[in-house]
Structures are given as structure tokens and as C-alpha cells.
Amino acid sequence: MGAVDVVVIGAGQAGLSAAFHLRRVGMEPDRDFVVLDHAPRPGGAWQFRWPSLTYGKVHGMHALPGLELTGADPARPSSEVIQEYFETYERTFGLRVRRPVGVTAVREGEHGRLRVETSRGVHETRALINATGTWDRPFWPRYPGQETFRGVQLHTAGYPGPEAFAGKRVIVVGGGASGTQHLMEIAPLAAGTTWVTRREPVFREGPFGEAEGRAAVALVEERVRRGLPPRSVVSVTGLPLTDAIRTARESGVLDRLPMFDRITPTGVAWDDGRSVDADVILWATGFRAAIDHLAPLRLREPGGGIRLEGTRAVRDARVHLVGYGPSASTVGANRAGRAAVTEIRRLLARERSAADTPVPSGLPA
Fold first, then answer.
1. What pTM did the predictor assign?
2. 2-24 pLDDT, tens per residue?
């Protein structure tokens, strides 16, 4: 399908930010770079979120560079609001995102280029911006007896909204924002809810300003620098103690139990003899980075993660990861997109300078 200078994989917040900055420095879509997205329409992972997650419940949605998101109805589903916003953004800046295109592998190509293999052919590129996020890799923990459970097991990625749990006994597993949101929505409709987490949940009181945000990002960044799989920023900041969460704690909805030891045909059980019957186990256990397509490049460290300097993969300077680890927030994704483009421009300039340098007389060309 031809050669370009940059391939961007993913058209969520990080990918669109990167594409914006590529255009800003004078690169043209389809000629100098392409943006590939596996989703059927604009919206990134937001388009798959459950209808009850309204825009007013979204915490810290940061506008994309160059175009503010204004006038959105807080009562509308965030999936609709952000899908429309991303669609307008792509059109406004002429980003020409190609979709649906699934990237199956990125491997070493010819003449120092990367070979990007997709469901719609192959691209050869001098640099790669990977912005694939985590939505496609929901994390399902494994527990003894899991296959014997006669009820329904589902993950946050497939959460249909609270109405589906009316009259059912529901166990929610996970101490993050999704788990608490699910519980507070489900509890008024369900026959009963049980909250189970591996670690004691941490609730954060007081203001959370820029200094606290930087400190949290730094903790995530340190893991990435050490080549460990990144943790979410929320995992190190704790959960904000809102009025809704205070009420849910006082009413017993957020009365947490430690992690069960096994799953039974009718529910879950602990080694101390306790058990809880359930019709549904909802795994609000997070996601992992969707980077399996990068496996042929051997970028992972022994610790299991990809070590980065800024956004650049330490093992391959042609590869940048945005929306990964410390940049996996909406504001972080914007900054990462700009930083990746800045470094890639330097890389391309060095390559062109080397290609233009004449070979000294008497040496083989």
C-alpha cells in the first residue's frame, strides 16, 4: 500500500492528538502519514461505553488540541457526546482516519523501515506511533472453580447498564472507579450486591491539584522506565470521596469484602467458611495495554513491560507509545502526542541528513 513517514495506530484521544500535531508540522495525511483505527466509527473506546455512563459522570475529560468540547449535555451518554466530538475533530482537521482497519503485526521491514501488516494490506513506515489503548484487552483474573459457575460472568467491557441486573444477586469484583460506579447503579435494582476487592480500597479526601497529579503520574512513569507493565493513574491516586460515594458507604453498598478464594457453581466461597450465592459475577478488574501486534519487534523488557524514554521505546527509536502508562489520561495523551511528533521529526531529519551526506572519496558507496 506504499510507504509513508509515520503510521499512527489508533484514533482515540492519543492517536488523534498525534495526528493533529503531525498536520501542524506540515505533514499531509495519506502522503506523509496514515491513521489506522480498528473501530467502525469515530469515538475511540468511548463509543463502547455503557449508556448509563453519562457525560456528566465522566471525570477529567480533557479537550483535544485545537478544538474545545463545549455545550455538551451532561445527561447524554458519554459514548454519544464524545463520538460526535471526535467525528467533528477528524473532519475539522482533515485527518482522514482509515477504518475499520485491524493491525495484526508490526515487524522489521526492508531498508530500515517498519512493516505494518493490517486487515487491508501492508504499510511501510519510517516511524510508528502506537495509540491502541487498553479497551481491547479486558483483564479477567482466574480463580479455582471459575468454569463451574452456573450464573453469568461478564467484564466491565461488556457492562450493559444497571437494568440488566434487576432482581439478581450480583458480586462486583474490583476496587477502581468502574467497580464503585457499577455497584452504585446496580444496588437499587438488584436483589443484593456484594463488593469484593483484592486490596483494601483507598478513598482520597480533599483537593487533588496539579502537584498531586504530577506525583501520581511520576509513580506510573517510574514503572514504565523500569520496564514493568504500567499501572493506571487511578490505582496510585485512590478514589475521590464524593458525596455519592459517602452515601453508598453509609448505606452499606460499598461495604467491601476481601477477595474470595474460589468460585462455586452457585457463587463464591472463602477458606474461612464464608460463602455468598450469586446470579452474576461482574469483573470490574481493569484492562491491559493492547500491544500484542508489536510482539515481533521484541520491545518488552524481562519485567513484562515496554521501557520508554518519554514516549520512545528504548529498544527501538522508531516506535513511540502514546496513551500508555503515564500518558493514559486524556490530558496526558494530548501531551504525549505532541512529544512523540517532536521526537519523530528529529529522527526523520537525522535520517535525511545522513542520506544527503556525500561518501568521502576513496570509500565504498
1. 0.87
2. 799 999 999 999 999 999 999 99
